[in-house]
Specification:
binds pyridoxal-5'-phosphate
Amino acid sequence: MRIIDLRRDTITKPDHIMKQDAFTAPLGDSVYGEDPDQVKLERISAEKIGKEEAIFVPSGTMGNLTALLSHTRRGDEIITENSAHIRMSETGGAAALAGLMLSPVRGHDGLPEKEAFLQAVRKDDIHYPRTSLLCLETSHYRYGGIITDPARFAELRKEAAEGNIKIHLDGARLFNSSIALGIDCREITRFADSVMVSLSKGLGAPVGSILAGSGEFIEKAKRFRKMLGGGMRQTGWLARCGIAALADENIRRLAEDHRNARTFARGLNKIAGYTVEEEKVHTNIVFAYYEFSEAVLLDIIAACKEHGVLCNQPRNGVWRFAFCREVTGEDVETALNAIRRETSTRG
Ligand SMILES: *Cc1c(COP(=O)(O)O)cnc(C)c1O
């Protein structure tokens, strides 16, 4: 039975060509800068993301934490939008390991509201922690993969610069944003001092993320990467996959995931009992709301699993789906049929 996994976009596996190419990598000790493919991956990443330099890190969480450590001092305060991944889903690393206070602020479509941001910025006073960093996120995961017009980043950038506050962009799905906006990702990243990008989500690499920024920033980040245990050795196999992940045609392919997400959203919206705000499906994530009890939905989810359609359990009344290259257009129809059938016998 074919398994159709709509739970996450982290399920992507390297394709045959990526794998074959990876295993021919010459390999070297990357801690000493001697893995040729990691060196190449870091150079290509910096160029694509539009920053002076970049480093390869084992995960997005480590990339974000490395950025926080590099931008701040212990006891500083950083500002995030309420539901930012850095605040919600990174195990409190900012506090536990970087010694930071988090100041979450109200957001609109995933972006901190300007007024809320300005209110959260601390004045220079010996009683207060120093506000040193603003963290932004695009696409925004907890807003259903929504994207932000870079003009709104520009506005925050201006305000942050006045307060001498740096900006870190959690761009785990930066390329989903740039593809959906139809612009070069450098048009987005120019408003950030540092950027994290996941290679292991929609882009399909098995492992790894990129952290990019100025030469000075990356020099600090390299020390923290090592401190956190992110100094890997013969990384060439992974780096080769990362290089393939960043190929232009692979990045353009993300549009397919976005199309599948929209088709799915439209289809689910037509099934009685579900609502999707289709205008908010910007990228590869779909949030749906359901009109029956959670117990009924759990029952539907269990029945779909019997047909090989894997769905998330709902959280706070939201049923989330993610689309990636493991899911074809045909899979979308199969999944919709399964949900339709199992809902109609219960609803
Ligand atoms: C997945 C994700 C991360 C963390 O990446 P991992 O590689 O899973 O550690 C960070 N930010 C956002 C928005 C993400 O979706």
